Amino acid sequence: MARAPGRTSDTAERVLDVAERLAQTRGFNGFSYADIAAEVGITTASLHYHFPTKADLGEALVVRYTDAFQAALTEVAASSDGALTKLERYVRIYHDVLGADRMCLCGMFAAEYATLPAPMQQALRRFFDDNERWLVEVLETGRADGSVQFEGGAADMAGLLTGALEGSMLLARSYSDVARFGASAEQLLRTLRPTPGAARSSRPVRR
Residues 13-19: contacts with CB within 8 Å, 24+ apart? Predict the structure, then answer.
């Protein structure tokens, strides 16, 4: 995933790079400032200069990851691809992260949600809200032009997609099997593909 533009110093960027990798493989509570300092080659005092507390570091990680993820989604949205292809490209982002032997940063942090400071919790919700908002737009466009079908509201489907992909990543990681994620994601996408005579039956449920 391309890194979103930022104004942080080179040292702060290196800290974030190392911390992101550690967080994506160990979780937020699975690494310390000493771990980061040793890899970056700085003192923990220098690390505290850039990020006074681990909560500050964690919030910066989520914000940077969210910005980068949204930059990738903006690129997908700007393409001339149809809704289904855009959803396939969305899935590919998760697949590529898992293929690099990492997890979605925000998915990892969400598993530790109760232990995270409030600013990190808020930043996590922004990540998932932004993702679901993007998915709703793609799903509604696809249903309108007949390229995608699903029952119920687009917001419900967006939540299902996000939850299913994050969960599939966890299971695939447990088995060290990226193909397991790919199979689950393909099955999920298959349910959205129009079938003959079914396009008109996928109207949103009236509440």
Answer: 14/40, 15/40, 15/42, 15/47, 15/50, 15/51, 15/57, 16/57, 16/60, 16/61, 16/64, 19/57, 19/61
DSSP secondary structure letter of residue 160: H
Residue of 148, 131, 129 whose CA lies nearest to 140: 148
How far is the C-alpha of 75 from the C-alpha of 99, rounded, in Å?
21
Q: What is the pLDDT of residue 3?
A: 45
Which residue, chain included where needed, has tokens 């919790």?
A: 121
Regarding the domain delimited by 54-201, which CATH topology (the fold level of the hierarchy) does it fall under? Answer: Tetracycline Repressor; domain 2 (1.10.357)
Encoded amino acid at 1, one letter? M
Low-confidence ranges of the chain (pLDDT < 70): 1-8, 197-207
Query: What is the pLDDT at residue 199?
Result: 45
> pTM of the predicted model, to two decimals?
0.88
Q: Helix or strand or coil: residue 201?
A: helix
- How far apart are alpha carbons 13 and 9 in whole angstroms? 6
- How far is Cα 190 from Cα 129, in angstroms, rounded to an integer? 24
Question: Dihedral, CA atoms, 17, 66, 89, 167, nearest 10 degrees?
Answer: 90
Q: How many Å apart are CA 114 and CA 116, to the nearest integer?
A: 6
- In the prediction, which pLDDT does 83 show? 97
